[in-house]
Amino acid sequence: MSINRFSFGSVPHTEVVTLNIKKSDNNLIPYFKINNSNELIYNLYKDQVIYGLGENVRGINKKGWIYESFCSDEFDHTEDKRSIYSAHNFIIIHGKETFGVFIDCPGRVIFDLGYTKCDEISIKVPENDYDLYIIKGQSLNLISKEFRKLVGSSYIPPKWAFGYQQSRWGYKSKDDILDIVKNFKKNNIPLDGICLDIDYMESFKDFTINKDTFGGFKDFVESLKKEGIRLIPIIDAGVKIEDGYDVYEEGVEKGYFCVDKNNKPFVAAVWPGKVHFPDFLNEETRKWFGKKYKMLINNGIEGFWNDMNEPAIFYSEESLREALDKAEKSKGKNLDVYSFFNLKDSFLQISNNIKDYKRFYHNLDGKLIRHDKVHNIYGYNMTKAAAKAFNVIKPSKRFLLFSRASCIGMHRYSGIWTGDNKSWWQHLEMNIKMMPNLNICGFLYSGADTGGFGSDTTSDLLIRWNQFSMFTPLFRNHSSKGTRQQEPYKFDEDTIDTLKNVIENRYAFIPYIYSEYMKAAKNDDCYFKAITFEYENEDLIEDQLLVGDSLMIAPIYKQNVKGRYVYLPEDMLFWNMESYKNKKLQILNKGHHYINVPLKSTPIFIRKNKALILGEHNSCVDKLKNQSLDVIAFMDKEASYIYYDDDGITKEYKHKDYELKIYIKKVEDDYKIDILQTSDSSIKKINFNIIDINSNKITKQVFLK
Ligand code: GLC
Q1: Rounded Cα distance, 542 and 562, in Å
Q2: What is the mean predicted confidence (pLDDT) over 578-593?
């Protein structure tokens, strides 16, 4: 393994990389040539696969398209786009030559991955100030681990954050929230969190609570928590300009906001109308803004989502003036096609326009730097401000935190959700394909708006999406105002019943999901992987994923299909799971299969010589007792599993290994089970279901002291 660093221009200190690697001689860059336009050029071999770029459109293999790292408030995630909310500048090229490439740069980076020329990668950094890291290693897994050593370990949320979260832009009051709780309870559907969208605030002002609709907030938060349900409020990047509003007034007084060319706080418009953007690149601003979360924490809040932090801009004073002037001048004129399109575009392209990103400045290390040059580290620094503050406010507590915009580096502080997708089958497919690439970029705690944010969902899409999201660490059903409501109980009885089963399955799988997440985070490993990360001689399969160490999944992401083809890289144990309580298992041999997957079923596959650990569901994570667990092992001669569990709320995991190691070995006609415990655990009993490759089934119970 080796990591080499090559430096170009003067790189602003992004604090993305945590290892100190000496610069190498730029004449010795392996694999790449630099052409006359300062682009890094690599000649692709036929059949090389390109993984990476985290949150972006298209498949797991990124080859054949051109992508741009430039965090964008892009609500239309169609495949002609080049960037969405995040900038994840890491790729692994795999094949005849295998290596990782990371571009540490706070501004725009263009990855032309066989788009302009089929057999060529070109990486262009328009500002030409960046560090290039090349990671050499023997395998995809090793390169991805080595990369995480370079950029630091992934964020660890509290355990309750692995429970189901319900959300919608449109929950307006305590009554709305109580109605959700009532309906979940009535239908016996587990629930751990309800997200509060912008309507909980007073006129969309950060760190305020609307007293008319959310009066008695603290008692409300506490009373829900007693039922195992946490409220998770949103915080937006823009601070409303309003006299008498403390955040605005302090920010202006202390100079904490980004400035325009005249050194005046820059004015943009987002939800509340005119806002200023805190200069999160400045440490003092971060400390100040971070402390503001305390008000909500003092009200009992334990989780947040940071939004609109690309930052999204609806319009600036200048851009609106320009557009209105143009409209004014067009009044009474006979507009031909081009002048009409020009007028139309001045409004259609007013939001998130590059011209606005060039109109404001940050104070970075005492120097003013134009926003567009450091655009991609803005959301990261907003989220870092929150995470660092949590460490001060409640040092030993884990908080839930997920952000919309991000760049690599932010994975140390929080998770992400994948933004404003739509209730489209192809967005479910994109969600599946995005997960392994997000993982290699360090973002383990992630998930999409289950059911789709924009557009109207359908019951079958919602079911299929839940069947995938039951494996994503962040499992949240979120939708936009104006779309069909998609809380599980809004559908017919059959749908409610199926969704309830899927969500219960999620809770029964938490012992496995949490173990695998924690081990991945602690060992710089991935929770979701493409097949090729473990089966090195196989070709990439775009729509099958490995989840943790023991499982492969093959989700359904097409409407009205009754089944699908699946390729097994080795013999596996197939479970077409309706309810975790009914373990109908079947051995499938290595090779291609067509599996029937009724709408109620989630197909999962247990890998050979591996084990799956399961508990039982309950109404929320806090109530999971997990004193008795089930192990399903599929094996030839021996299998092992490391079960990880901890208190789920403190940071003690940093000092202790809460592991229970299970070894199963075939000895003549029987199986010998050894359990090694490194610390106390709540488990009293493990029920073993062992299935060997000859279909022999053995059940055993082991009691623990
Ligand atoms: C943005 C977010 C979305 C949220 C909405 C209102 O579009 O991505 O999740 O619901 O803003 O706050």
Answers
A1: 20
A2: 97
